[in-house]
Amino acid sequence: MPGVLARARALYEDAHQADVAERFDDALEGFRALLDLLDGADLGPALSPDHRAGAALRVRALLGIARARYESTGDLRGAMAAVDGAERYALAGGLEPEAFAVQGERGRLLLRSGDVEAALAAFDTVLRGADVPPTRDLAVALLHHGSLHLDYGDPRRADADLRASAEVAVRLGERDLEAMARHRLGLLRFVQGDLPAALRAMGEAARIGGTPEPVALLDKARVLADAGLVGDAVEALEQAAVMVRDGSLLVRAEVELTLAACLMDLRRHDEAVEAARAAAAAFARCGNALWAARAQVAMLEALLGADRWMRSRVPRATLRRRAERALALADGADGRGSSGGVADRMAVVYPALLAAAEWCALAGDLTAARAYLARVPADLGTAPLSLRLGRPAVVARIAFAAGHRSAGVRAVQHGQRMLAAHRGLGSVEAAAASGVHAMRLNLVDTQAALATGDPAAVFDALERGRAAAAGAARVVPPDDPELAMLLEQARAAHQAALALGPTSTPEGLRAKRQHLVQARRLQDRARERSWQVEGERRPVRPTTARELRAALRGLAAHGGAPVVASYVSIGSRVLAVRLDGGGQRLLRLGERAEIDELVRRTRADLAVVANSLIPQRLRAAAAASLRHALGALDALLVVPLDAPGDLHVAARGGLLTLPWCALPSRSGLRTWVGDRVDLRTGGGAGAARPGGVVVLAGPGTDGAVREARAVAAVWPGSSLHTGAGATTRVALDALAKARVVHLAAHGGHVEDNALFSSLRLADGPLFAHELDGLDLADAVVVLSACELGLSVSDVGGEALGFASVLLRHGARAVVAAVAPLRDDLAVRVMPRLHEGLRAGLPPGAALAAATRSERDPVPLVCFGPLPV
């Protein structure tokens, strides 16, 4: 008999490991083979130890079949039949531990199928005894009981159960269960709104090992999406989808549902509808009506997202039909007394009612819209952020549609304050990413303002939206040794690749690639680590048209004020609000597609013109094309402003990094740019900073050293660092203290990972990531490096790049190139720029004076706030 039992235990262990790894076909085959073995074995009398051991293995095999069958096929009836069979064997044999496991698996199946009340009853029964021994089955039951409370609205009890599960797992040395409990505690922190703590807990669980990787990726994606890092969330979900392709049907459905929400944020509404539809079908197949209803809500929200952008082209009858579908879904969930309780109301009833209300408002039926809105509580407590922001967005839309502008604006501001209070991730990247959550509020606000035709209303709406995700995530650099180590290792890997020099041998190319791949991996780890460090983000107050006009009148009284132009792309058009001390005008400029193409062509031509390796004939053709594109952009965007003097531009996207100073009508005139109108008070450039003027020249170019020496010569007493002395530590110290910092070095803008845009210094690249938390108030920074003025716009429209990080941390001005900058051009222009700064000119005026005599377009732009 011992031989049979040994084979049976080995079969069980193999099948169990396949089950844990979600190889459900292998698990089912193994559990069935175990049952076949036991069926043909003579294990002695009924009460003998061997017989009891065999009966216990039979119970465990049936429970394994139940889990694998339900997860892979959604066959709840067949899974419950296997549980019932296991229960009969456990009771007949007096197998108390196995009877406990049976009730735990029954509760788990009820939970997975959405029968919350029955699942709670099952777990309450099995955990009621005070003398339950600390076994793996107890840890599993506590884990699922805690997950039940987590998913359905009782975070206090969830915390107690999950901590207890982790403690039992630690006592037993069950590392996989400890990891799963700690992972769920991370998800609890997410539900409670502490996103850095959530990612830290999930990271700790991943280091322990044991959490199924698709589940870990799914939950990580939920946190990242909530932080606004939607692209990263989609990447995690795509990885999870590949891993679970032949695994749990329910996990596949959850991946599709979470993906649908991300696709909505990316405005890929048709794809979001399909993902939500697939999720709804999978949940229905598993008998989980609760989650099927959630997926149906997501499908409706995706349709509504498209209708918001196309509201003038969607027939009212269609809008009303969709409102009726949403109402039917809400009433169905509400009317059946759903066992999901508060969580179901948050995930189905209230979102569906808000969708019905908004569709009615879009259709012009404000009476119905108000009635549906009234069924959604004003205080949604710890509801998901999207729901809490959705209610004020609908309130605003109804108020604007009824002609109550002040009430609509108050609702928008309420939502934006809610977003500011949301405890997001602790990095400047995440602060920018939070703008994705403001998009819905911004759209309602801007559409309503445009409908009034009032330039001041449009300006105010734009600035409210732009301020929502402005500023930095923290006010001091993160004190995190692990993050510092990862950044240092990434720098070393870059240096190792550079040290190989130019090489064409297979061995050299392979070694260089290995170093660069390692650097990218370290950068990705540093980026994720930065999300786990808390920040102290301070809300940014938006500028109003009234405040701006008053400030401009004050500037005019003291010698001159600029024209301010705030650009925005809405639908197929580009518009601008022009303001000066006397008033404001709304200008409808060119077609968006035409302007986008001119911007693209300008950037391409600038790159060709600056490349001395390209034949002169081709560079001459590019120069002619560049002059034509700049002239066309000037005629479309600037000439209609009637701005003969200073011009301050506020813009987003491609317009932000347009070479504004190179436009023909701006030659020799002060022009500076920001992603919002930031009225900045205070002294002159660097007035409050103790560190003087610091100039650094990075390696690899003779022009940088000549340029740095010429710039340093302009400033008596300046600090010059070249060669081995131009290190990242010197640069960071200068940025933290100096009044004026000039950095002449090779630079690189990284399109797909903007915060690893960098300057090459003696000890390696200085990454934009390393600027996070620096106090740059009043500093003027000149980046004499290719393309470091460029930025990428995230999903919410926020700019990310080297220069944008400096500005978010308070720099008074950043002069940077938005295209490749030739060495000979930099050597001529930069000393003249600093002569202007030393003479007391504002940075934008100093740049205009420095470039006035150049025949070729200079791709330098002055970025900064509007000093008053």
UniProtKB/TrEMBL annotation:
Residue span, CHAT domain: 642-854
SUPFAM superfamilies xrefs: TPR-like
Cleavable signal peptide: none
Pfam families: CHAT
Record InterPro entries: CHAT_dom (IPR024983), TPR-like_helical_dom_sf (IPR011990)
Name of the protein: CHAT domain-containing protein
Organism ancestry: Bacteria, Bacillati, Actinomycetota, Actinomycetes, Micrococcales
